[in-house]
Design a protein that fits this description.
286 residues; six-stranded antiparallel sheet; globular; four-stranded antiparallel sheet; alpha+beta
Length: 286
């Protein structure tokens, strides 16, 4: 349903409607529509894209911040401005979120928020599995209040649309700097770096099928026992657009970010400081 809602948003929304929910329209809000060309450049020299392709990505995005607290089980309704009242998706705190209005918003927001809730539940299950694994992670190492569950949390769901062709329909090579990522793709595009070679990641053949990738934060916590997966995206189709759902799970900002066995001389830190440094630098701090 979320992918259908995304397709309707990109195909039916006018540019004026998209600008109405642009993430930077209100500087106090950070979630919403991202224009083509707003995706940052990553490591262009290392991913094999041509000079023409590098820096010319025209990916569009609608981003939703995943923060869950309380809520009601009453049926959801939406106003003409896109505001949702009641319903299970009222359990999400959308204070930092821009939404499309009108009839588009009435269909778009409930579908997207229901999917966001399901993703938060999946993130919590993965969080518990990581803590129960033999990685040696302390309870607080993967989120003091749980991933995607507390105040000051950078967990995010991105609904991305790539235009046809590699020249504009790509994303340069990078690793995700949160703890772990879930990716749903219905057409081929995601490539992962394995043994020095770029390999196509499998397509999601059902709505519940996702690819799980480790991020920089998990690599840092485990002192490299789990490596962050380097990846890139290339829409190989010259005719068809490519839609994907990508969910980034981060721990609460006040979570202790020190590794299981800190390197000598390494002090303690907090997840919020780490992510802020990543965002400021555009890459992960070494």
């Amino acid at each position: 349903l979320a992918l259908c809602a995304l397709e309707r948003f990109h195909s039916r929304a006018s540019q004026r409607q998209k600008e109405h929910c642009h993430h930077a329209k209100d500087q106090t809000k950070v979630g919403g529509y991202f224009r083509a060309g707003e995706e940052p450049d990553y490591d262009a020299d290392a991913d094999g894209f041509s000079d023409e392709e590098a820096g010319n990505s025209r990916v569009e995005d609608f981003a939703v911040h995943l923060r869950m607290e309380g809520g009601s089980s009453a049926p959801a309704t939406a106003t003409d401005e896109g505001e949702v009242r009641g319903g299970r998706d009222a359990a999400a705190v959308w204070g930092n979120q821009q939404w499309p209005g009108g009839s588009l918003g009435r269909a778009f927001r409930p579908a997207v928020t229901r999917h966001a809730e399901a993703m938060v539940r999946a993130g919590h299950a993965l969080h518990r599995a990581l803590k129960a694994s033999r990685l040696g992670l302390r309870d607080y190492a993967v989120g003091g209040n749980g991933i995607g569950n507390g105040n000051g949390n950078a967990s995010l769901m991105r609904m991305l649309q790539y235009p046809p062709g590699a020249t504009h329909g790509h994303m340069q090579a990078h690793t995700d700097y949160e703890a772990f990522t879930l990716i749903h793709q219905q057409s081929r595009g995601l490539q992962v770096l394995q043994d020095g070679e770029w390999r196509w990641a499998p397509v999601s053949h059902s709505a519940g099928q996702y690819i799980l990738m480790a991020g920089d934060m998990l690599e840092f916590w485990t002192n490299g026992s789990v490596r962050a997966q380097r990846h890139r995206v290339c829409n190989e189709s010259r005719k068809e657009k490519r839609n994907s759902l990508v969910v980034f799970f981060a721990a609460d900002d006040d979570t202790d970010a020190s590794p299981v066995a800190p390197p000598e001389g390494e002090g303690e830190g907090r997840v919020g400081s780490y992510l802020a440094a990543c965002a400021k630098a555009g890459v992960r701090p070494e």
